Amino acid sequence: MLAYRTPGVYFERAESRPAPGLPRTDVAGFVGVARRGPLHRPVRLEGRNELLAAFGGPTPQGYLACAVEGFFANGGQTCWVVRAADPEKARPASVDLADDAGRPTLRLTASSPGVWGRRLTATVLRTGRGRFTLVLRLGDEAQELWRDLALDAGDPRRVETVLNDVTAGSRLAVASRPPDSPGTSPRAARWRLAGGADGLATLRPEHLTGEGSPPARPWGLAALETVDEVAIVALPDAMPVPRVQPRTKRRPPRCDVLPCGEVEETGETGQTGEEPPFELPPALDELAISQVQGALIAHCEKLRDRVAVLDVPDTFRTPREALAWRRDLDSSWAALYYPWLRVPDPLELTGLLRDVPPSGHVAGIWARGDRSDRPVGVHKPPANEELEEVEDVLFRVGDVDHGELNDAGVDVIRPYDGRGIRVAGARTVSRDPLWRYVNVRRLLVLIAEAIDEGTQWTVFEPHDVRLRQEVDRVVRSFLDGLWRRGMLDGATAQEAYSVVCDETTNPPEEVEAGRLICRIGVQPPWPAEFVVVRLVKSVAGVELTDDPEGQEGSHA
């Protein structure tokens, strides 16, 4: 505190709270079936390479990888992924490495459950007395080289310490000692992991939704509840996959690490005996799919900080069938997209193209418009945007059917001559006209999130006039910034928003209850969904004028 002893003018800077910043609205969350990766644990990804490293590429068992790849291809930058399976049935592949006497001395276990571990090989090269080099190779997808390893407990290069390190260890395998390990180095050979199970044959809807899961280890959607930055959620593997067994062929032996004569692939490699069949998840019927999508909507309504992207099952192929599926949905926290997309298929399960649900690609369109490096924002309807890495749609919708679907709240994806395949709808599945559009719901989510985070300082502050005035100033400053960015409609600030935080909203009974109430009203921008141009024939020729009645009709 300054000592005011000399007469004069003194300036003091009063403490003021800054206006809340804009939270991210482009982060998506996905739950589904993956080739590999941790079970029921959210993993943050920021690109296709991280997806391949953590969960692998596309698989015949589900659509998760295709959806996430579509998200990144269409503008998404960050997402959280949860791999779902039956945790009681899923188990990792493993192999015991033996020494020269044939005694098991080191056990390698795949880093996550699944039959993917059967493709993992471990090549041992001895480099000195008690020391060896280990090469882990997962087909052509990944390779790790670990030099100068040892089995001695006090050695800093002990294999368990090096491979199992949380930050710098292996992403393919975990090392441990089998019972009665002699502690001698494994012999030089190539070993292949065996066993493992995906846990998909017994996959149930609750493994996707998380209903009834243990609180300490939640499943599926329940695991995403703890990730606060997620603003878009999709569950593509609620849709059944075709019952197609992938074609496989035996790879020729690799001679670039060890001479072919020194490679061992039988006996202790665990390849004797018949391998279990390829696991496919059971196909959910219409009732189960409806229940899963209902749980997804309930997830969004409960947390109130994210919006769901829903798919119409591919068995509902015609517009009439899509309308029938939409009939039981009613929520402003979800949007339904139709039809499915046809994308390039590296697996070539049924040909060069694969039919996939559109939710992942559409989530990328949502994220593309929300990014801060673009001159748009969450207030813009996520429509009239071209889909990337899409070759065709499963069903081509005509203008008449498109009109019926749009009126019913089904967002259509259509190919346009010379303009590619575009999202041609931005409506929620709500029957309330005030919550008809996706951008309105998501804009309100952004405002609520920003104000909630920007006013946390008010907790336990003395509830007096100064506190209410400061809250009014902070909230008004934030909304004014939105209006100046074009995110709120209105010719003036008074038309765009209103803030009331005084004694009228905080009567004595509310103050005594410890509540501070600030009433906020906003005018979100209404999309120009129907742009009508009137042709007028006059003596001077043909004139083009905007039809104001048509514009007003688009707001109804």
What does this structure look like?
A hairpin with a 2-residue loop joins strand 22 (533-538) and strand 23 (541-546). It contains 14 helices and 23 strands. Helix 2 packs parallel to helix 8 (359-370) and helix 7 (319-326) packs parallel to helix 9. The protein is globular. It has 3 domains: 28-86 and 201-243 and 280-435, Rossmann fold; 94-196 and 257-269; 455-522, no CATH class. The protein has helices at 48-55, 64-73, 159-163, 205-209, 220-224, 286-303, 319-326, 359-370, 399-408, 438-454, 465-484, 493-496, 508-512, 548-553, and strands at 28-32, 43-45, 79-83, 94-98, 104-110, 120-128, 131-138, 142-149, 173-176, 190-192, 232-234, 307-311, 334-338, 341-344, 353-356, 385-386, 392-393, 410-416, 420-423, 497-500, 519-522, 533-538, 541-546. The strands form 6 sheets. The protein has a 9-stranded mixed beta sheet, sandwiched between helices. Strands 8-7-6-10 form a 4-stranded antiparallel beta sheet. Helix content is 24%, strand content 20%. With 556 residues, the protein is α+β, with helices and mostly antiparallel strands.
